[in-house]
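Students often ask why we bother predicting the structure of a whole assembly rather than each chain alone. The short answer is interfaces. A chain on its own may look different once its partners are present, and contacts between molecules only exist in the joint model. In this exercise we take two input lines together and write out one structure for the complete complex. Read the inputs first and try to guess which parts will touch.
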Amino acid sequence: MTPSSNIVFSAWFRCAEGCDFRAPLTEVVYRCPRCQGLLEVEHDMDALRRRNGPDWKALFEGRFRGGAWPYGSGVWGKKEWVYPQLATENVVSMYEGGTPLLRLEGYGRAIGLRDVWLKECGVTHTGSFKDLGMTVLVSAVKEMRARGMPIRAVACASTGDTSAALAAYCAASGIPSVVLLPRGKVSTAQLVQPVSNGALVLELDTDFDGCMRVVQELSRTPDIYLANSMNSLRIEGQKTVAVEVAQQLGWTSPDWVIIPGGNLGNAGALGKGFLLLKDLGLVDRLPRLVVAQAENANPLYRAVQRAGGARADLAVEPITAATTLASAIQIGAPVSSRRALRAIEALDGLVEQASEQELADAAARADLSGAFACPHTGVALALSLLLLFVAQSAFRRARRTMKVEDRDFARLQEIRQRLGMDT
Amino acid sequence: MTPSSNIVFSAWFRCAEGCDFRAPLTEVVYRCPRCQGLLEVEHDMDALRRRNGPDWKALFEGRFRGGAWPYGSGVWGKKEWVYPQLATENVVSMYEGGTPLLRLEGYGRAIGLRDVWLKECGVTHTGSFKDLGMTVLVSAVKEMRARGMPIRAVACASTGDTSAALAAYCAASGIPSVVLLPRGKVSTAQLVQPVSNGALVLELDTDFDGCMRVVQELSRTPDIYLANSMNSLRIEGQKTVAVEVAQQLGWTSPDWVIIPGGNLGNAGALGKGFLLLKDLGLVDRLPRLVVAQAENANPLYRAVQRAGGARADLAVEPITAATTLASAIQIGAPVSSRRALRAIEALDGLVEQASEQELADAAARADLSGAFACPHTGVALALSLLLLFVAQSAFRRARRTMKVEDRDFARLQEIRQRLGMDT
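Now the answer. The structure tokens for the assembled complex follow.
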């Protein structure tokens, strides 16, 4: 294998909209100062390509869940792809990642599909996938503070999970944290987490979007560092989910990946991960991507429907999101819609939606096969029903066994046509 | 490495009290028909010893979290030590085990100790360590049913976590499950799990011990299989925690292991795991074991205090457990006290207790360093304070920084004397 020490890997912020703005990852900057677009972390691809696909696989497999600290973490086992130049002593890790990829055998059988897999990103320290990104962001802050930068605290707006992850990683590294939550919209279980971890917890009489506006004000000065997914460091950790999925499937991509979409950072992250896997020769094809929105909080779905398809340059009009069981994606003004649209375009994707009934039914059905699906997972599962009828026979059988209504049947046929499947 | 296929590994039930009763693992039997003592799973140690320590390590490391299904599971990656002759197609696994071993750096610093580690057994599919044993038990039932044995359902009494694990593994394998819970003593979050997974959930107007009596009646006929920890199959899965801890510490034993104790099966399991590691040459010494009880539910502590020390043949008088925040170990008549006492004797162990205040304080203090400790973990953490003052300087520093009261100081000194430490 090419020794790692012979290649210098590096990454930096750049404007995701195409300006030539660049900044080091230790700079306190969230948007391009020229166009106000979001940033993304860009890697020195020439350096990454100097190691071939089989060597990358061997490196990642040797570390997975087992390597010397912190390489046993699912995120830091891919450190060269995440934040290569971070000093190892500044990594704040709680062995995030390495989560189960469960085969939902009974569920698949019930809906007439052979292979339905559930990536249980929530089987982690704070109980949600947010740990994956937060370990990167808080590690970056630890590095900045180690260099003497005057960051007093890290702050975020949250519907629950982000604040839990921020508070835990900050507590582990002794960095103060501030979390802004919409009053009455966060479960007690989720509220207890940042309080226990010693965060300054502020409940505001507004929704998530309102909290988001306040935290952006708070973090105007560089001594309060912004931890929301607008901050593109988190994307780097979250994209390792794609790497793990491919790895757990024996270095192949699934045919389809369905992901629930609220603020839409995670959809962008997943796409970025698969593109990197393909580019560096670890998989030989891309999966198709479905972003699944709750019908009650569907600004991306509406925009795509209006435009007749998903394009990276589509404008997504903010809406006021209605109440949904999937409370963490009850977001009307998604910060990362551009990121998601770019991923959808690159992965030949779709945006679909699920009603409250559909998401609840899908979660309940999966639970009866041993899963324990949250409503957000229910949104994605509902679309596995709608989208994954890849053979006419399975479609007919599902219609019979699942008592699909004629209305739904018409919708399924429309979707199948859009996917270019036989009807 | 010695090829696995050349050695035939096997295991069977035997009377844990020393009768010569033996039975295959697929027989529906929970107690010795001669002496009514519990059973234990005994392995063909001669076969296991035919592979040397380094080869076992290499085998386990190669599989850890990564091997072909089901060897990526923390439990089934050690299949030869757990249930060697089980047909692989009957394994019901949800990638249990492989949980983080977190270094509580801030917590250790606060109490004056360099190395305090937390094994996060709850970072798993249903959220508790019970998955580790339940995967073995439900797999055994699947094997029995595959052989045509008329098992209609699997049943358990539970304070919450056991029922969640039973229901999930049964749902995943299509086996009916029945759970008996003490009404009002199980959190809503824990109640939702077996209900979602389609178990028959019965709430009884009694405590855990009452539910235990009813489920033992229910399972008198062999068509209802008993899933409580009395069933020694679960111990086999749970003992893999010891293997993982040693593995994650680079194949060494920690100096001390502290484990909360209620029904006491897990304490026995942990001891069994470390003894096996030592016997087969994977570690060169045993840790000392501390079983930590809540002061409000402390039958083992009382018995040991009365007898002036822990001996394997000690009789543990049942008590009526008082309410404790650590509700899952609010057990007055522990089924597995003999198992625990044998482990304590073999691992030169101790039994200690923590008050409600102590367990709450310890959990809160750990949370401020990034943990998210349940009250049961709090019981163990409280005893890390009391027991782990291995150097006088650390003890003095802790007394200063933690504001230890004089009363506690006297108690600490007494414990240190018992442990043979300098005072």
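Check your guess against this: The two ends of chain A are 49 Å apart (CA to CA).
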